[in-house]
Amino acid sequence: MSITSSGSSQIIRTTDPLNSEPPLVELVRDVITPVEWFYVRTHGTIPAIDEGRFVLEVDGAVETPLRLTMRDVRAKFEKSTVTAALQCAGNRRTEMIAIAPVPGEVEWGSQAIGNATWSGARLRDILHAANPKPEGRHVAFLGADEIEKSGHIIGFGASIEIEKATAIETLLAYEMNGLPLDAIHGFPLRSIVPGFIGARSVKWLTKITVQAAESTNFYQAKSYKVFPPDVRADTADWTSEPAIEEVALNAVICKPGDGATLAAGPTTIAGYAIGSGGVPVERVEVSMDDGATWTDAELLGIREMWRWNLWEARVDLAVGDREIVARAKDEHGNEQPSDGSKLWNFKGYNFNARHKIRVSVS
Ligand SMILES: Nc1nc2c(c(=O)[nH]1)N[C@H]1C(S)=C(S)[C@@H](COP(=O)(O)O)O[C@H]1N2
Ligand SMILES: [Mo]
């Protein structure tokens, strides 16, 4: 099924709402993920917003509530650009499901992630214009989409703390890779919160509320939290765990694909790696002997906060069935966990165990 004007096809995980991710191999062609290959995560409708009538409301604990048109957002605030990876907290859920079922969630592969350049106004400049009151500790976002939740229609919401909201990297973006946002990626305006799970980058952003407490929106309060493995949906106390903010350190093998048949001899293993909390990845290694020996991968592109790195490792494949595993280390020495079973949680979030694929070499 084709979902973009260029006719490319993503792998559709669900059609209503639309959730899709690209073939894994598309992610390693370019450090900037083209819009046509950028995963799409929606929870409800895809609003068709008339930019000319669009108004962004800024209210709550502010001295000066604002009503901004898109013309205001573009003209009154300096345009800023950040290159940042966006990753769904459910990325790699299929591997978690292989450990134990994760009922009722989208079965994402390892490609619910992309790296784009985002341009727009800095959220801090807009907040500065609204002049938050001292009690304004959280900044809540609300999307214009309509999502059915237990018989009610709600919008997708999230909140971030004032420190992240006023950090230089946090944007209200109207462009993705130099072009106006696509309808499916949040046209005309979305928040971009680099380093945080995709759920905090709210699409079709229509309202910003500065407030004393975290957002009570379903997607901040009753979703996107990691519980210990023994907790299930019916036993979860949603107030007991914090909302996920930062994505986890991760590395994924994109090429060859899992289950591929390859010719013996030299071959290139390629993938992506992303740091947690903006800490750049320092090293990616691959092993073909269950971790006894490791080969360094070359990190491609510049090392900078918020963006991912693509990587390539040259290895020599011997005949037989092989397992290839990748692991990343960040600049602070953090490593990925080797045992995925400890990571299992009933919502299926933040899976970042070392990525393994099986290939057969002849
Ligand atoms: N309004 C709105 N914003 C949203 C969502 C949504 O369903 N509605 N999904 C969130 C989630 S969970 C993710 S991972 C990212 C996905 O962004 P993308 O579709 O542009 O890749 O958008 C976030 N923002
Ligand atoms: Mo997500």
Strand order of the largest sheet: 5-4-15-8-11
Derived from helix and strand composition plus strand pairing, the structural class reads mainly beta
**Spans of at least 5 consecutive residues with low confidence:** 1-7
- First and last CA, distance: 34 Å
How many β-strand runs?
Answer: 24
Note the run of SSEs as H and E.
EEEEEHEHEHEEEEHEEEEHEEEEEEEEE
General shape:
globular
| Percentage beta strand | 35-45%
**Largest sheet at a glance?**
5 strands, mixed
Helix percent band: under 10%
Cα Rg: 21 Å
| Small molecules bound | the ligand Nc1nc2c(c(=O)[nH]1)N[C@H]1C(S)=C(S)[C@@H](COP(=O)(O)O)O[C@H]1N2, molybdenum atom
Mean pLDDT, to the nearest integer, reads: 96
Helices, by number, come to 5
Supply the key terms:
362 residues, mainly beta, five-stranded mixed sheet, five-stranded antiparallel sheet, 5 helices, 24 strands, disordered N terminus, binds the ligand Nc1nc2c(c(=O)[nH]1)N[C@H]1C(S)=C(S)[C@@H](COP(=O)(O)O)O[C@H]1N2, binds molybdenum atom
Overview of this protein structure:
The protein starts with 10 loop residues before the first strand and ends with a strand. The longest helix is centred in the middle third of the chain and has 8 residues, at 123-130. Mean pLDDT is 96; it is low at 1-7. The protein has helices at residues 70-76, 93-97, 123-130, 162-165, 218-221; strands spanning 11-14, 19-21, 40-41, 55-60, 66-69, 79-87, 113-122, 138-143, 147-149, 152-154, 157-161, 171-176, 179-180, 190-192, 205-211, 250-255, 261-262, 265-274, 281-287, 295-296, 298-300, 309-317, 320-330, 355-361. A hairpin with a 2-residue loop joins strand 12 (171-176) and strand 13. The protein has 362 residues and is mostly beta strands. The chain binds the ligand Nc1nc2c(c(=O)[nH]1)N[C@H]1C(S)=C(S)[C@@H](COP(=O)(O)O)O[C@H]1N2 and molybdenum atom. The site of ligand MTE has 18 residues, from strand 3.
